[in-house]
Design the sequence.
């Protein structure tokens, strides 16, 4: 878009420095180009004029034509308002303003023909429209747009009178000031192949569509383009890696794997586990570097897959590491793996933020000289001073807690990058996975170990607490254990911490005869450990906790999970929490507790939890209800792009088209070095220059 794109928005007629400041702060619009790419979020058909006698309060936005017959100022104080009676000959309607009475009266004269637009509301027999949009009536032939775009605006913007209509006017004035056409942003071959309208038409029609057809074409082109560049970026790195990165070739399956399988495996592997291990084994033996995402619902047995993979590395004389997001989880993995491998000759260490200095020195030395085979740890593992002799495999558990940059640090610990296995229990819908992890291969464990009973999930209002506690008592009497989880989204929230502590005291008082323990993120890790231990050993029957227990904690005897203020959690998180129970053979319960006041959306989300235990179904529903930007983990997991117009769920088909097209382009021209692709290359660099890719390049 050349120099034009960079022009500061303050120079646009009608903006100026003050409004520019607001536009920048509120909606990130700093330049002409930014504003051109600030698209309407909905369109309203303004070709139809309604008659007043045919409308009622159930109508959506409507348009009527007529004149104001009188003004009246009514009410006092906060209820003070300006009321106008508007007539079109078939009846009258009230127009209301709660501020700006003088301005309104000066602007809209009695007896002039106006078009009024707004949402009617019914009060008894009276219909009124608050803060309507009013225009002079234009002859039909001069009406510019039948579809009017609506732009989102914030409270701050409205206070400064920047409403949707003002934005629309500003966009119009940018188009008017354009001296030359906007530069094309996609190559001719792609436009032809995929039937895309040019950028000038697309941008004009997305703001001011003359017909539904025009709008569809514009929106297709812009969505396509958005998804196309993301795919082109991912696929470019994929191709680069394929061409340039050899991986360690793990040829052997030796004593470690065989002995473990024969002597230490506590149960038969599920078919899904076997299949996934085969895929991993094949990958690591292929001579190419593995980059694999392992998805498996909570409790599906990912840890065993990790262990088998690490043993393959050991059989080939390589070191392996597994990184977990929290100290608790790292410690639990460590204990678990150590126990399972006790019959093998494997030296395994644990490294976390609280590892003591002396111990730390021993570990550093062991990693460097290769005497430590496996290391389990937290973020501490990615520090620069952790040096391996020959790191062959990196496993990252519950990856949605790790950012891209952190991950790429790990893969840079060798001259040759190690194999990577990313494990996640957050099921990522296919379309999103393709967008986020287009450069990773995906394995899925779609089967739970045998003998699990589906967890029964119940929604309970706070008023039903007594009944709930008596249910809990029965479970404890039957020998089970119970989790009660409080939201503590930001560990710094004082009021949340207070809620948790009050809850703890309440429960302690109610269940005097039993031990109750408490765990939260603000505790010292030794203290946390001690409390966790109480629960793990079965001494404490109830654990009151925050989401620190979300990942990985494994106490098969626990059969009840109570989640307080359940509406404050995301669905993925609720699913994770629920996965802490239902690990033994007993029937387990998850109780979602909320107050009576639930928004419709919250209600829907909690209903989904009650309806299904299938993590994928939940993730799909979550994506639909909240949109991908909100989906837990996507922010941190490296979705460093913001979709302006495409929607991952709704536009799955366009995504597929864009991906196929990007793939064909790279097939023909892997480096985008042909002249016709210069445009793609420049655009790609512009869009992704600051983004570290999952890949290993850089
Ligand atoms: P996640 O996939 O959530 O990390 P884990 O690896 O922690 O799951 O496994 C959950 C539980 O299931 C553990 O107690 C584990 O020992 C058990 N488990 C794993 N695989 C099997 C299997 N094939 N048969 C029976 N139990 C299994
Ligand atoms: Mg796990």
Sequence:
């Amino acid at each position: 878009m050349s120099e034009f794109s960079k022009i500061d928005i303050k120079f646009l007629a009608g903006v100026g420095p003050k409004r520019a400041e607001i536009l920048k702060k509120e909606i990130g619009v700093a330049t002409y180009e930014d504003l051109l790419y600030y698209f309407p979020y909905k369109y309203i058909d303004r070709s139809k004029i309604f008659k007043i006698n045919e409308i009622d309060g159930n109508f959506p936005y409507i348009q009527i034509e007529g004149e104001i017959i009188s003004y009246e100022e009514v009410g006092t104080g906060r209820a003070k308002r300006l009321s106008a009676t508007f007539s079109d000959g078939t009846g009258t309607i009230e127009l209301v303003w709660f501020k700006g009475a003088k301005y309104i009266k000066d602007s809209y004269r009695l007896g002039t023909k106006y078009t009024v637009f707004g949402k009617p509301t019914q009060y008894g027999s009276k219909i009124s429209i608050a803060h309507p949009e009013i225009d002079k009536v234009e002859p039909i032939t001069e009406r510019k747009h039948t579809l009017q775009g609506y732009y989102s605006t914030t409270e701050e913007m409205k206070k400064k009178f920047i409403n949707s209509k003002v934005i629309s006017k500003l966009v119009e004035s940018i188009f008017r000031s354009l001296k030359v056409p906007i530069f094309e942003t996609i190559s001719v071959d792609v436009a032809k192949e995929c039937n895309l309208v040019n950028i000038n038409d697309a941008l004009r029609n997305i703001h001011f569509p003359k017909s539904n057809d025009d709008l569809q074409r514009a929106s297709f082109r812009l969505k396509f383009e958005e998804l196309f560049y993301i795919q082109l970026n991912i696929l470019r790195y994929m191709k680069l890696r394929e061409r340039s990165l050899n991986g360690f070739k793990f040829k052997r399956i030796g004593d470690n794997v065989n002995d473990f399988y024969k002597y230490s495996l506590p149960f038969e592997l599920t078919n899904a586990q076997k299949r996934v291990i085969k895929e991993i084994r094949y990958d690591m033996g292929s001579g190419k570097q593995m980059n694999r995402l392992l998805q498996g619902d909570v409790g599906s047995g990912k840890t065993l897959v990790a262990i088998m993979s690490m043993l393959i590395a050991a059989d080939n004389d390589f070191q392996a590491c597994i990184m977990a997001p929290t100290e608790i989880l790292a410690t639990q993995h460590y204990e678990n793996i150590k126990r399972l491998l006790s019959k093998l000759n494997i030296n395994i260490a644990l490294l976390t933020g609280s590892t003591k200095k002396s111990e730390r020195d021993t570990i550093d030395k062991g990693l460097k000289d290769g005497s430590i085979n496996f290391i389990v740890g937290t973020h501490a593992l990615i520090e620069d001073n952790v040096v391996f002799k020959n790191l062959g495999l990196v496993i990252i558990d519950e990856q949605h807690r790790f950012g891209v940059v952190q991950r790429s640090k790990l893969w840079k610990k060798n001259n040759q990058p190690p194999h990577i296995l990313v494990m996640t229990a957050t099921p990522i819908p296919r379309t999103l996975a393709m967008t986020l992890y287009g450069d990773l291969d995906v394995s899925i464990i779609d089967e739970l170990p045998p003998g699990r009973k589906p967890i029964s999930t119940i929604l309970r209002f706070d008023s039903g607490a007594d009944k709930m506690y008596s249910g809990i008592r029965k479970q404890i009497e039957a020998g089970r254990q119970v989790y009660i989880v409080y939201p503590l989204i930001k560990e710094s929230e004082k009021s949340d911490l207070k809620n948790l502590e009050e809850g703890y005291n309440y429960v302690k008082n109610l269940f005097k005869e039993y031990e109750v323990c408490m765990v939260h993120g603000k505790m010292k890790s030794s203290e946390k450990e001690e409390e966790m231990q109480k629960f793990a050993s079965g001494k404490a029957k109830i654990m009151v906790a925050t989401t620190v227990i979300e990942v990985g904690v494994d106490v098969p005897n626990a059969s009840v999970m109570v989640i307080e203020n359940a509406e404050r959690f995301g669905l993925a998180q609720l699913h994770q929490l629920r996965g802490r129970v239902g690990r033994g053979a007993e029937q387990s319960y998850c109780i979602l507790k909320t107050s009576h006041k639930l928004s419709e959306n919250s209600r829907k989300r909690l209903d989904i939890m009650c309806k299904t235990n299938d993590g994928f179904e939940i993730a799909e529903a979550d994506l639909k209800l909240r949109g991908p930007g909100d989906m837990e983990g996507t922010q941190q997991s490296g979705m460093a792009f913001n979709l302006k117009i495409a929607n991952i769920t709704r536009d799955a088909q366009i995504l597929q088209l864009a991906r196929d097209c990007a793939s064909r382009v790279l097939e023909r021209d892997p480096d985008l070095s042909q002249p016709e692709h210069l445009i793609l290359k420049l655009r790609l660099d512009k869009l992704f220059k600051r983004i570290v890719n999952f890949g290993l390049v850089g």
